[in-house]
Design goal:
The protein is mainly β and 669 residues long. Among the domains are: 35-128 and 145-168, Immunoglobulin-like (Sandwich); 170-292, Immunoglobulin-like, CATH 2.60.40.2630; 302-359, no CATH class; 509-669, no CATH class.
Length: 669
């Protein structure tokens, strides 16, 4: 495999080589609404519109640029911009429009078609979703996503030169397919590991408008590879400097396969504005990092029970001869069989291939809203990867993930092992996760998930709700966002958790939010680490936030040799009397009026700063390096714990010895 990244653009300034006179305009007339012609230049020489690749067959080809007739930018002075348009072609251009109303500084945004028209300059975003290339080695689609900005300290006149800055990076892929007659349909670049991933949208000045994803995608239409089975694709990317070291490059094709490279670099990759990053992906050569996945596309998703009648699993379903899922069609059969009330109780399944999901809509395996639609078999992923995307429908399910409902019993526990998911997951379900939505009596071991999990209500990085379950050597890298409860492993859990980690970010707006688990009902947590930063912006209710566990809601729970490294930031404007409880390890330990509950925390450390802001309700705001809030009559067994994270409450620095938010005299030993 040849896998290279090269920064290939030169950084020279454009020189305006044309001249134009505008004798009809009075330079001294500065009234708003007056027509004016302005000169515009690009700050980087080879970055914009009308791209032409001067070396289309080379990995380090240069993308040349020019303005084209019809290009337009929006010029802001206040909330409503004016549009300036050019009739020129070339590397310099004159744009004509009206001076916008306002005074002071002026800002320009290109292209005008993507500029906001009634909310002001600060509401503009760079949005790269929906990119589609038509034809091999075609760059026409890039112009609509090649954002540029410029700032002026005062109102422009005819002698003003508007100097634009390019805000985007270009990703170039030179792909060799493994054979002739294969037509590519989609190219996906996924960031694996603990980084927040790629920007799919970024606010020009307002970070609250940012959206990030574990992957970015380019749809491919009418791409016919050349005689050497090669094609070249281009994708616009928003610059980012905190990507991970691990990446997955996948090309889904019309032969029902996705060709995949998984690459690990020695340092995080950086995409900078005004640069081209070229990758050569040779799927004909293969190599240790080269995989072929079966594609689960819209055609597979549309298969009916009748269509699947002749599809059979190899194997007998016993532990010695499990049912084999060797294609996307077999996975669809499993979805359909469970939907037809076949639970496969006591049976065994084994995944024998990677599967790449490109279907617009994913139907989970099992539905907790109908008790007959549950999966009760055992599942061995055999260390294969399910990648792509998991998009839920507009139908509100209770639980959404690759599996929706996994149900065992105390006497017949279910094993899920060696399964790895690299996919963003989104749904309007009550709970959204990557792997298992609702799980009873299930033991998960050596399972991982990478990507963004975005739930309209509750969200869990790997699982949603777990009852009498267990996690062992399970890991999540990515971003979890839930409007209510959220956790890096699970939003709600009872059972044992051992040797697990979470990296990335966890976000919530209400209730229970934890680095590993949002709400913990019962069990033990041993040797688990959270590296994810946690952010909660709450406006409607009380909340509990912890670096390891958001809320503990039962008795005899133990936390041993666990560490939080993530920074916890909570901003609440809630004005009710309920508590805002934030802790480096546990947010809140409070069940109710009973006084009998106990908790054991031993040899555990918080390294993350704890920042809590709820200034209008200071008496109900609690933050601690160990626990945010614990009922005074409960029992805490504590030994060997430490805190190096600084605790700040409503701007007041409490230092590192502020162990329990509502117990000022607590002695950790």
């Amino acid at each position: 495999m040849k896998q290279t990244y090269a920064i290939v653009l030169t950084s020279c300034m454009l020189v305006l080589g044309a001249s134009c006179t505008n004798d009809d305009f009075n330079v001294n007339d500065q009234s708003a609404g007056r027509p004016i012609t302005l000169k515009a230049a690009q700050a980087e020489a080879k970055t914009r519109v009308g791209h032409s690749d001067t070396e289309p067959g080379a990995t380090d080809g240069i993308i040349d640029v020019m303005w084209k007739s019809g290009d337009a930018f929006a010029l802001y002075a206040s909330s409503t911009p004016e549009t300036f348009t050019t009739d020129d072609d070339g590397k310099t251009a004159y744009f004509t429009g009206n001076i916008p109303t306002g005074s002071g500084s002026f800002n320009a945004f290109f292209p005008a078609s993507k500029a906001v028209t009634n909310e002001g300059w600060a509401h503009n975003v760079f949005d790269v979703k929906g990119q589609r290339q038509t034809g091999n080695n075609n760059l026409d689609h890039l112009a609509a996503y090649n954002y540029m900005t410029a700032s002026l300290e005062e109102e422009p006149n005819e002698s003003t030169l508007i100097q634009f800055t390019n805000e985007m990076a270009v990703l170039k892929f030179i792909v060799t397919l493994p054979g002739s007659g294969i037509i590519p349909t989609r190219l996906t670049l996924a960031a694996q590991g603990g980084s927040p991933g790629f920007y799919t949208q970024k606010g020009v000045t307002d970070a609250s408008l940012d959206e990030r994803s574990g992957q970015i995608t380019l749809e491919l239409d009418n791409i016919v590879p050349d005689a050497n089975n090669k094609f070249t694709a281009y994708m616009m990317a928003i610059p980012v400097d905190d990507l991970s070291k691990q990446f997955e490059f996948s090309v889904a094709c019309d032969d029902g396969k996705a060709y995949i490279y998984r690459v690990k670099y020695s340092s995080p990759l950086v995409y900078a504005k005004g640069k081209v990053y070229a990758s050569e992906l040779d799927f004909a050569t293969g190599g240790d990092n080269y995989k072929v996945a079966s594609v689960f596309d819209n055609d597979i998703a549309a298969k009916t029970t009748t269509d699947l009648a002749t599809v059979q699993f190899d194997g007998t379903g016993d532990a010695e001869s499990p049912y084999l899922i060797s294609s996307a069609l077999h996975l669809k059969k499993l979805v359909d069989d469970v939907d037809q009330s076949e639970a496969y109780a006591g049976k065994y399944f084994k995944l024998t291939t990677d599967i790449h999901i490109t279907a617009d809509e994913w139907t989970p395996i099992g539905d907790s809203d109908n008790d007959s639609k549950k999966f009760s078999g055992n599942f061995d992923g055999d260390n294969h990867v399910i990648s792509g995307k998991l998009n839920g429908s507009t139908t509100v399910l209770t639980y959404f993930g690759l599996f929706g409902y996994i149900y065992g019993t105390d006497l017949d526990r279910i094993k899920f092992e060696n399964l790895h998911i690299t996919a963003d997951a989104y749904s309007v379900a009550n709970t959204t996760c990557s792997l298992g939505g609702c799980n009873y009596y299930v033991d998960f071991s050596n399972c991982t998930a990478t990507g963004n999990v975005d739930g309209e209500t509750n969200a869990g990085g790997i699982n949603g709700l777990n009852r009498i379950a267990s996690f062992s050597n399970c890991h999540f890298w990515g971003n979890v966002q839930g409007a209510y409860s959220a956790g890096g492993l699970s939003y709600d859990f009872s059972g044992n958790v051992t040797d697990c980690t979470v990296s990335g970010t966890i976000r919530s707006t209400q209730y229970n939010c934890g680095g590993l688990v949002g709400q913990y009902i019962s069990g033990t947590m041993l040797n688990c680490n959270n590296y994810a930063d946690i952010f909660v912006d709450n406006t409607t209710s009380d909340l509990r936030v912890g670096g390891i566990i958001g809320r503990i809601n039962f008795d005899n729970i133990s936390i041993t040799e666990c560490t939080n490294y993530g920074i916890i930031t909570v901003n609440s404007s809630y004005t009710g009397t309920f508590n805002t409880s934030v802790g480096g390890l546990v947010g809140e330990f409070y069940v109710g009026a009973l006084n009998k509950y106990s908790l054991t925390i031993s040899n555990s450390i918080n390294h993350g700063n704890v920042i809590v802001n709820r200034p209008d309700m200071d008496s109900y705001t609690f933050g601690g390096g160990l626990i945010g809030y614990m009922k005074d009559t409960y029992t805490l067994n504590s030994a060997g714990n430490s805190n190096t994270g600084n605790v700040t409450i409503n701007g007041s620095d409490k230092g590192t010895n502020w162990w329990i938010g509502n117990n000022r005299d607590y002695d950790p030993e």
